[in-house]
Specification:
This protein is α+β, with helices and mostly antiparallel strands. It has helices at about 15-25, 40-50, 95-110, 125-130, 170-175, and strands at about 5-10, 55-60, 70-75, 80-85, 115-120, 135-145, 150-160, 180.
């Protein structure tokens, strides 16, 4: 996929150094569901588990050099969970929003009925990206987040790509006792 500034493509074996820069950064990984990688071996293992043979996992690269600076992905389970990460030095430049809009259009063309995404309430920037790509806030819930093992209030967003505006993915509401709708988001 191409956008004005970006190439969204599959990760390749020769991307491990760039992926390590992203995955090893503690600040980047603060709000991601895994711990930062410690070495190249862990990076390669992460690549195999999360990107290799995953149909909806892409490297975000600048057109000027085609080197990964982030990723964007969607899970293939019933959540169609949309996620992304970007190297810190590229934050606040609209890159994930640009990639996200192209990614959403690709999912629409793939006939994916909807996508969901969650973000920690303490990471409102991620919620801004979700809204900018067209997602709507649905509800919040508290989860004892694993493997990091601390309580997080997640905000769940959804975008229905098939026109069924009444659909809300409520698995998290059913799974976690503490769920609620926040006002003024």
């Amino acid at each position: 996929m191409l956008t004005e500034r970006l190439i969204l493509r599959k990760f390749e074996n020769n991307d491990m150094e760039a992926l390590y820069l992203l995955l090893s950064d503690k600040e980047v990984n603060t709000f991601l569901p895994w711990f930062p990688v410690k070495n190249m071996e862990e990076t390669k293992s992460f690549y195999k588990k999360h990107f290799l043979d995953q149909p909806y996992s892409f490297a975000i690269c600048l057109k000027e050099d085609n080197i990964p600076i982030g990723y964007i992905k969607m899970e293939t389970d019933d959540s169609h969970d949309f996620g992304y990460a970007l190297r810190r030095e590229f934050w606040n430049g609209g890159i994930v929003t640009e990639a996200g809009k192209a990614f959403v259009e690709c999912m629409r063309q793939e006939n994916i009925p909807y996508i969901t995404a969650t973000h920690d309430r303490n990471n409102p920037g991620s919620g801004k990206v979700m809204r900018k790509v067209g997602m709507k806030y649905c509800y919040s819930y508290n989860e004892q987040w694993q493997p990091k093992d601390f309580l997080v209030t997640f905000r769940m967003y959804q975008l229905n790509l098939d026109g069924r505006e009444d659909r809300v993915y409520d698995k998290y509401r059913k799974l976690y006792n503490m769920h609620f709708v926040e006002k003024n988001l």
